[in-house]
Write a structure and sequence with these properties.
By secondary structure, this protein is mostly helical. It has one domain (3-71). It has helices at 13-16, 19-30, 40-51, 68-71, and strands at 56-57, 60-61. A two-stranded antiparallel ribbon has the order 1-2. It is globular and about 40 Å long.
Length: 85
């Protein structure tokens, strides 16, 4: 496996080179209503937790298969490993 094929452990999508997926997620987040969205502070703190989680591999949560950037954007979503406060 060469350097370009390595899976980035503990990387969010934005850091793992999956720009196309991240662009799609950003568009979907922009289209959420304010009632559906988590606040910017909550979003950032959730992603900080994900970034230090053993389930995060290559921008995907291996506990549930989600993209944390998308899950964290929803006010009512919960971490599948119960790590978000």
């Amino acid at each position: 496996m060469n350097e370009e094929e390595r899976v980035c452990r503990r990387c969010l999508l934005i850091e793992s080179g999956k720009d196309g997926i991240m662009l799609d997620i950003r568009k979907r987040i922009e289209n959420l209503s304010e009632e559906e969205k988590s606040s910017a502070g909550v979003y950032d703190s959730r992603l900080a937790v994900c970034k230090n989680c053993d389930y995060l591999v290559g921008g995907t949560c291996m506990k549930c298969g989600c993209y944390p950037e998308f899950r964290a954007a929803f006010r009512k979503q919960r971490c599948p490993a119960n790590k978000w406060s």
